[in-house]
């Protein structure tokens, strides 16, 4: 990151990115520079600052985010029902709209549009990220989720964008667990009913689930289904296979319909209403995306450079990590009965970020130039060849005044 000992100081640069998102300023590179100059020993001019925004810096911030994911720990806030799992994960992604000049680097779904997609694996039990990646907008969320032995004893919650029988089979074969909404066009065959109903209940065995669901009025559906899928390629071919899963339906009386879920969680431990409650935890990742966009300005990109986009995304994630770490410290210092809702904490953190950055710079031993000197440096005209409005008016009226 450092090739020679110059004016640039890396710690203030990193901290200004982490807290610069959270200050009340607009999310611009100029605002980040002002944040840096208010912390470092020596200020940087606009040109001196912008030339430091390089692909190497983007890689460096990426590494810092990955390091932070391993280090940050925050209070457990989710029901004890999850204690039997090693971790609970939510996979999801969100689109970031970019300048149209970046359409070659970040191809959008619509022509002449540019967009990036931020993919996250979120742990609602500790309100923190587990994994992250950035692709162009056209990349499907599903392509960024890789199965493997890491899934052992972990529960993953999916929306329909990740729906694949083969993926569910691999999670089960790696001793992991999953809950997903059943896609409307997925119509597996019922092999067994896991709950008996009294009276003239419609038998479901041998039927395809979507073919009969509209004729049902019971409160819950709880059945075993068999789904066919193709395995991954091997020696140039893909073999056909099948696997049995559990499908659960919870009736929504307002909509006169069922919410259908597919899972491998055992009925002995998780009743249908339990699955519906667990799946509602997916709202945690939606709240996380909202926090990143509303509090840390993740949807504001005024740049035409690919690596600057990456710098800004990683800076937002650093802000989130710092926010969660501070929440952990605040929770330790507060009364035991104190509760800190994530949204309220994020707004509080943002409003106090510049004060925290000033205290942090002082603690680390940095001595920024006096305030008056920084005001003069930041507020004065930069481009001598670019006239301001008053100069233009004065030049236009001067000939008539002289005449």
Radius of gyration, in Å, reads 27 Å
Count of strand segments: 9
**The CATH class of the domain at 69-184 and 262-293:** Alpha Beta
Total of helices: 12
Strand content: 15-25%
The sequence of SSEs as H and E is HHHHEEEEHEEHEEEHHHHHH
Largest sheet: 9 strands, mixed
| Spatial arrangement of strands, main beta sheet | 3-2-1-4-5-9-8-7-6
In the CATH hierarchy, what is the architecture of the domain at 69-184 and 262-293 at level 2? Answer: 2-Layer Sandwich
**What is the fold-level CATH name, i.e. the topology of the domain at 69-184 and 262-293?**
Nucleotidyltransferase, domain 5
**What is the averaged pLDDT score?**
85
Helical content (DSSP H or I, runs of 4+):
25-40%
End-to-end distance: 60 Å
Describe the structure in your own words.
This is Transposase (IS4-like). Keywords: DNA recombination, DNA-binding, Plasmid, Transposition. One of its GO terms (molecular function) is transposase activity. It comes from Halorhabdus tiamatea SARL4B. Belongs to the transposase 11 family. This protein is of the alpha+beta class. The protein has a domain of 148 residues: 2-Layer Sandwich (Nucleotidyltransferase, domain 5), CATH 3.30.420. Helices cover 37% and strands 19% of the residues. It contains twelve helices and nine strands. A nine-stranded mixed β-sheet has the order 3-2-1-4-5-9-8-7-6. Helix 1 packs across helix 2, helix 1 crosses helix 9 and helix 1 runs antiparallel to helix 10. The longest helix has 28 residues. The chain is elongated, with a radius of gyration of 27 Å. The protein starts with 9 loop residues before the first helix and ends with a helix. 31% of the residues are buried.
């Amino acid at each position: 990151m450092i090739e020679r000992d110059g004016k640039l100081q890396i710690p203030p640069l990193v901290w200004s990115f982490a807290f610069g998102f959270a200050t009340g300023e607009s999310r611009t590179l100029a605002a980040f520079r002002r944040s840096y100059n208010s912390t470092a020993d020596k200020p940087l001019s606009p040109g001196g600052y912008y030339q430091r925004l390089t692909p190497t810096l983007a890689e460096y911030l990426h590494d810092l985010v990955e390091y932070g994911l391993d280090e940050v720990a925050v209070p457990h806030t989710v029901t004890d029902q999850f204690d039997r799992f090693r971790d609970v994960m939510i996979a999801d992604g969100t689109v970031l709209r970019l300048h149209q000049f970046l359409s070659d680097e970040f191809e959008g779904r619509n022509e002449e549009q540019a967009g990036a997609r931020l993919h996250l694996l979120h742990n609602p039990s500790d309100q923190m990220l587990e994994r992250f990646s950035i692709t162009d907008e056209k990349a499907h969320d599903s392509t960024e989720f890789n199965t493997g032995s890491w899934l052992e004893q972990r529960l993953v919650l999916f929306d329909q964008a990740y729906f694949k029988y083969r993926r569910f089979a691999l999670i089960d074969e790696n001793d992991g667990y999953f809950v997903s909404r059943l896609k409307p066009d997925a119509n597996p065959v019922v092999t067994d009913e896991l709950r008996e109903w009294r009276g003239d209940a419609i038998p479901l065995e041998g039927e395809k689930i979507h073919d009969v669901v509209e004729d049902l009025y019971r409160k819950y559906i709880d059945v075993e289904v068999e789904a066919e899928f193709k395995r991954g390629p091997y020696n140039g071919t893909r073999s056909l296979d099948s696997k049995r899963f559990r499908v659960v339906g919870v009736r929504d009386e307002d909509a006169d319909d069922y919410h259908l879920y597919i899972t491998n969680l055992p009925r002995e431990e998780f009743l249908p209403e339990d699955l519906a409650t667990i799946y509602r935890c997916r709202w945690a990742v939606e709240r996380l995306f909202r926090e990143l966009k509303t509090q840390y300005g993740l949807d504001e990109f005024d740049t035409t450079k690919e690596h600057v986009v990456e710098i800004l995304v990683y800076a937002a994630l650093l802000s989130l990590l710092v926010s969660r770490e501070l929440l952990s410290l605040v929770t330790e210092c507060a009364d035991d009965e104190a509760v800190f809702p994530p949204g309220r904490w994020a707004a509080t953190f943002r409003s106090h970020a510049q004060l925290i950055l000033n205290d942090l710079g002082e603690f680390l031993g940095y001595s920024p130039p006096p305030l008056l000197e920084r005001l003069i440096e930041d507020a004065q005209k930069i481009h001598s060849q670019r006239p301001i409005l008053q100069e233009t008016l004065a030049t236009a009226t001067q000939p008539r005044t002289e005449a």
